[in-house]
């Protein structure tokens, strides 16, 4: 379980500093996929980066299990980061390496330097990487270079790489921002299925509100660094969405999302890769 308690982040000194996060408090239990929504500048990316300590929080605690991540330094922090899998918007793959090598890079924090430098990983890590590639539907692409893949395939490599860490928490930063509607649904379905299979908690920073409402177990809405909503997707009505984002035609947005789904089922959207 992940627990945030009065997590705050201020850029700059004193009372005039820019408050990117203000006393954010919530828990993510095992197996729950939490969607983080809000306009640009609301603090979504800052929150994720505070959790994995790429950004130093100004106040509050971040507990993964019994460990307060906010208080760790040096080797203890590096050890704790191994417990957190990260899936990126722009995939963050090494383009010249193969799919298999990119997945195995998720094990770099667990192997001696000489093994990582020569890319000689233990047999059990290789076997697990094959299993993960099979799970995300890319077993036949194991020897392809990453730069030969489509966007949806690259995102699936990123998912497999994160899982290779054997994480206790997944942080997912805008996983569908560069994908077409059909592939976006496939990727979100894959993430939620894997979290259920592994009883993994996850936080997904997502800009697509209808997609979040379709796939997230729970949604937290941020505005100007503060939590303004925390609840089930079906409770996120137009009034609350307007409070979070400002005025928008939410009915039209949902209708467009539903039309895409209908078109996908009818085979009228561009063909995207199947995710098993």
Descriptive notes:
This protein has 276 residues and is of the alpha/beta class. The protein has helices spanning 44-51, 74-81, 99-104, 113-118, 123-135, 151-164, 181-198, 209-215, 238-245, 250-265, and strands spanning 2-11, 18-28, 33-37, 59-64, 67-68, 84-87, 169-173, 202-205, 218-223, 226-231. A six-stranded mixed β-sheet has the order 6-7-8-3-9-10, with helices on both faces. Strand 9 and strand 10 form a beta hairpin. The radius of gyration is 19 Å and the shape is globular. One of its GO terms (molecular function) is ATP binding. It comes from Halomonas caseinilytica. It is found in: Cell inner membrane. It is a peripheral membrane protein.
List its traits:
276 residues, alpha/beta, Rossmann fold, 2 domains, 6-stranded mixed beta sheet, 4-stranded antiparallel beta sheet, 10 helices, 10 strands, 38% helix, globular, Phosphonate transport system ATP-binding protein
Q: In total, how many domains does the architecture comprise?
A: 2
Beta-strand share of residues: 15-25%
Catalogue the unreliable spans: none
Query: How are strands sequenced across the largest beta sheet?
Result: 6-7-8-3-9-10
Radius of gyration: 19 Å
Q: What is the succession of H and E elements?
A: EEEHEEHEHHHHEHEHEEHH
> What structural class should be given to the helix and strand makeup?
alpha/beta
In DSSP terms (H or I, runs of 4 or more residues), the helix count works out at 10
CATH homologous superfamily annotation of the largest domain: P-loop containing nucleotide triphosphate hydrolases
């Amino acid at each position: 379980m992940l627990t945030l308690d009065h997590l705050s982040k201020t850029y700059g000194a004193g009372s005039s500093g820019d408050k990117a996060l203000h006393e954010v408090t919530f828990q993510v239990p095992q197996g729950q996929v939490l969607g983080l929504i809000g306009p640009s500048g609301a603090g979504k990316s800052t929150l994720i980066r505070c959790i994995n300590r790429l950004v130093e929080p100004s106040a509050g605690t971040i507990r993964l299990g019994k460990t307060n991540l906010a208080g760790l330094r040096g080797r203890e922090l590096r050890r704790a980061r191994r417990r957190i899998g990260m899936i990126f918007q722009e995939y963050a793959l090494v383009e010249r390496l193969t799919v298999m090598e990119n997945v195995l890079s998720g094990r770099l924090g667990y192997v001696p330097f000489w093994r990582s430098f020569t890319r000689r990983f233990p047999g059990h890590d290789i076997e697990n990487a094959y299993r993960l590639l099979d799970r995300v539907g890319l077993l036949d692409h194991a020897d392809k270079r990453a730069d030969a893949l489509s966007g949806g395939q690259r995102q699936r490599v990123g998912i497999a790489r994160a899982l290779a860490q054997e994480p206790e928490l997944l942080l997912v930063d805008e996983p569908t921002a560069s994908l077409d509607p059909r592939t976006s649904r496939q990727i979100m379905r894959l993430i939620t299925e894997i979290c259920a299979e592994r009883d993994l908690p996850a936080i997904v920073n997502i800009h697509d509100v209808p997609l979040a409402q379709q796939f997230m177990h729970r949604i937290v809405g941020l505005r100007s660094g503060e939590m303004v909503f925390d609840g089930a997707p079906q409770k996120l009505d137009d009034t609350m969405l307007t409070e979070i984002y400002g005025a928008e035609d939410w009915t039209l947005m949902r209708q467009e999302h539903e039309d895409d789904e209908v078109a996908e089922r009818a085979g009228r959207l561009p063909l995207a890769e199947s995710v098993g």
